[in-house]
Prior knowledge:
The protein has helices spanning about 15-30, 40-60, 75-85, 100-110, 130-135, 155-165, 250-265, 270-290, 315-330, 340-345, 365-380, and strands spanning about 5, 65-70, 90-95, 115-120, 140-145, 170-175, 195, 210-215, 295, 310, 330, 335, 355. It is of the alpha/beta class. Helix 2 (about 40-60) crosses helix 7, helix 3 runs parallel beside helix 4 (about 100-110) and helix 8 packs parallel to helix 11 (about 365-380). The radius of gyration is 21 Å and the shape is globular. The protein starts with a strand and ends with a helix.
Amino acid sequence: MPIYLDNAATSHPKPESVYRAVDHALREIGTSPGRGGYRRGLDATRIVFGARESLAELFGIKDSSRLAFTSSATEALNLAIAGMLRPGDHAVTTTMEHNSVSRPLRLAEKRGSSITRIPCDRSGFLNPRDLAAALRADTRLIVLSHCSNVTGTVQLLAEIGHLATKSGVPLLVDAAQTAGVMPIDVTAMGISLLAAPGHKGLLGPQGTGFLYIAEGLELPPLVVGGTGGHSSGEEQPEEMPDRFESGTLNTPGIAGLRAGVEFILSTGIETIRKKEMSLARHLVEGLGRLRGITLYGPAPEKERGGIVSFTVEGRDPAMLGFTLDQEYDIEVRTGLHCAPWAHRTIGTYPAGTIRVSPGWFTTDQEIETFLSTMHEIIKT
């Protein structure tokens, strides 16, 4: 069996309950939520409502109707950024963002918004004082990733959220790398908008995600159409979550997402976090002992996500990744990881890095096998 170390892209494998939930929704439910008053239609509606409630519990969301399902974190971020920024508005972000943040911001910029990109340090950290200095009277949005998908750098989200609340500027958080693996409470952390995918740390299937929108924020929808209710009106409904859920929802995917979230709730987020930190520490310490390796991101004693990026002196990351896959059956990510701004910040553009990202089902023995393999490759 291959050793899979690309959980920052998609978590694999999933809990068995996730596979069962998807299969049940496809085989036994088979229909769509809100589209019929018969029993199976109501069962589909209950699946989606249950998933919404479980996510609300995980993220401290008091009203689950403020959570809209999307096909991905990318869609959620586009919905938030396009909805919040108008020509003349100002937004603040960082130089460590994924393209799912930086490209929608670039589009907003082309449409007349202005964007300030605050430089982070070579470890990927944002200084909150720099963020405070960048805010202006016309600042409409702060948007940043909780954890870098390149370096595993975890930003000081509670401090940033306090600053956003004090300044009266909504904070949009890209939680692609922390949802399901680090505690997030939208109220305590001052988060106005939270975007996350279902297929990473939340342990659900691909094609799922969500956007949380705080009470009092009003965004136009990206897509309008049938919502299963309010069928007589020509205008898109105002009510959450129908306003942002036009078309047929991915009920099997959402059923799997619900099972993934319930697995996290029953296992305990702190237990999951503790294991992620242990695996990351094992990687950092083991790679740090190998000749010619440069590690990127936080120092070993700093808090970090489970992502570890590195380069090997004189070796192309893409070729090393190919060798690991073809000769050793070890799957890692190489290149820019859809985050060129981040690689410019840490000095690895344009070749990028080798990224290793263990998950809940990764074992210490798999990490040890990877480390011994790297030792063997570097010697050749």
